[in-house]
Amino acid sequence: MVIIGPSGSGKTLVLRTIAGVLSPDRGRILLNGRTLFDSERHINVPAQDRRVGYVPQDYALFPHLTVEANIGYGLRGSSSENRARIAEMLDLVGLTTQRQLRPRSLSGGQRQRVALARALAVRPDLLLLDEPFSALDAPTRMSLLEDVRGLIAATRIPTVFVTHDRNEALQLAEYLAVLMSGRIRQVGTPSEVFGCPADEDVANFVGVETITPGRVRAVEDGVALVEVGTHLVEGGAGVGPGDEVLVCLRPEDVVLGSRTESGAATSARNHLPARVTRIVASGPYIRVELDAGFTIVSLITKHALADLKLVPGSEVVATFKAATIHLIRKGGASS
User: What is the pTM assigned to this prediction?
Assistant: First the structure.
């Protein structure tokens, strides 16, 4: 489970209460049917007895202890059992040759692996990871992302992972929970949350850049025909004629072509004439803002930009499939 949300939304607070670092004012926390906290029954299991592995953002390693001593901290078996478990964890995270080093001698990625190994060493019932890659450079982050995914799969420990990074969420999550202003706004699979956001705030956060009001003119074969400005847009479902909606469209779903090209060769149902208003580099892609009577944003490759010879003021056709349209009913559920 990945909890995603903007800074200050309460993501770390959720993990700290589950771990037992903080106590909620009220409520209950249960893990596998075991009560960890219950304000009404005055139950508050100490953090060390919760069987929860917690990796905070700063890793919280003991600077005076070696790698193996950090990993072994919290183990309660016999000396021989602890040594065997530490060796197992060192091998799992690839730090056997660094076992006698102290944290100050390690790279950021290695320190993160030590923190993970320490959390896993006690065989927790739940693993909590609080933005573990936030302090790492991009190449290290990508490498460790694969490592963490492999560790979780290998240990089969249920994991709650906190991030504000959409790419991390998409690569790691089986389920997503969107947390905004201290409240869970949506829970679902990554495709459900990113493809069908529950409301406008969630849509904005998960990268939907075209969000514009519309009114459902008709519904044919379960597909809505929506009046948006002076255009009719086909797509979305679960609404009725006359419904006021927000029309949502992800930038990667908008294909641009010249005004002279025909739409006959594509299965897309929507072809809107538009004018380029702004072009901005966005990583390896180009973000193109369009005026089609309402604002549309498209994400294209640099090759496409060159092929189309786009500049502000260029006249184009924005094409997108009906299936890529998501409708949020105003004052009601999304579809």
Answer: 0.84
